[in-house]
Design a protein that fits this description.
Layout lengths: L1 H30 L2 H9 L1 E6 L8 E3 L5 E3 L1 H13 L2 E6 L5 H6 L5 E6 L3 H4 L2 E17 L16 E5 L3 H9 L4 E5 L2 H10 L4 E5 H10 L3 E3 L9 E9 L3 H16 L2 H19 L1
Parallel strand pairs: 1-4, 1-5, 7-8, 7-9
Antiparallel strand pairs: 2-3, 5-11, 6-9, 6-10, 6-11
Helix pairs in contact: 3-9, 8-10
Length: 276
């Protein structure tokens, strides 16, 4: 009798393990592709981004105040692939990951690089544009800076939560790092003399220099961790949606659209800045 009971217990245990394994397998397959089905059902792809970051994303007066740029064009290509409309949600940079994690948007594209901390919360795409960190100062002060050490005691503005904030805090030893919600506010403070420099991506920094001849880029001063790759990110756990995003990125890298978008939106941002 004891032997029979033991056999029954073993069989029940095996059945329970197989049942749990099946459930886990079914959960994984339903999670993958779930977002695509949801987006198609809703008829829209909701993009989370943070404007004021030309040519990646900026508010265009000529386009009725819409947010346009490289990242919005990438999102539009993804929406087209899904056969849905694109809806843009503009918000402070520091709110993007939380909004995505809580279901407030379907995808974030905002010149955002992957970090270990972010990767714990969301899944990142392949890199679509390789950028570098750079320092922008007032042109009249440019000769005062030859090394990173020359920023000791200076006020340096960065966008809150951006990789530029991390680099500035780690490598501008002795500088007073001031993190603001919007990159546009950092450059406003630079023009007003409230800060001495802004650390940002090179593509964006050059755009602000082109738009305002009172700024200068310190291209000879390099950060040790200068790389600033840009990636899209989605909520964790949907391999099918991530593959679709990567496929669209690869397609637009291969056909030269990213180069075209950088040129197009750099020119557009400059044109609108000069018209103001």
């Amino acid at each position: 009798m004891k032997k029979f009971t033991k056999i029954v217990c073993v069989l029940l245990f095996i059945a329970m393990v197989l049942s749990l394994t099946a459930c886990g397998s079914q959960g994984g397959s339903s999670a993958s592709g779930k977002k695509i089905a949801e987006i198609k059902k809703n008829g829209k792809l909701v993009l989370g981004t943070a404007s004021g970051y030309p040519p990646f994303e900026f508010v265009s007066v000529e386009n009725n105040g819409d947010v346009i740029g490289i990242d919005v064009s990438l999102a539009k290509a993804i929406a087209d692939k899904l056969g849905v409309q694109l809806v843009v949600q503009d918000m402070p940079f520091g709110e993007l990951i939380m909004t995505l994690s809580t279901g407030g948007c379907d995808i974030v594209i905002a010149g955002l690089p992957e970090t270990p901390e972010r990767a714990e919360k969301v899944d990142f795409s392949m890199v679509y544009v390789n950028d570098e960190q750079t320092i922008i100062v007032r042109k009249e002060d440019a000769n005062n800076y030859k090394t990173l050490g020359d920023f000791a005691g200076k006020v340096v503005d960065v966008e809150l939560g951006a990789s530029s904030e991390t680099v500035a805090r780690n490598e501008l030893t002795g500088a007073n790092i001031n993190a603001l919600a919007l990159i546009a506010d950092c450059f406003l403070e630079l023009s007003q003399g409230k800060c001495d420099a802004v650390v940002t991506g090179m593509v964006v920094g050059k755009q602000y220099v082109v738009n305002n001849d009172s700024y200068a880029e310190l291209s000879d001063i390099k950060f040790e961790n200068k790389d600033k790759p840009t990636q899209a990110c989605i909520a964790k756990g949907d391999a099918e949606f991530l593959k679709l995003v990567n496929d669209v990125i690869k397609e637009n890298q291969d056909n030269g659209n990213f180069e075209k978008w950088i040129e197009e939106f750099s020119a557009q941002a400059s044109k609108e800045a000069q018209a103001q």
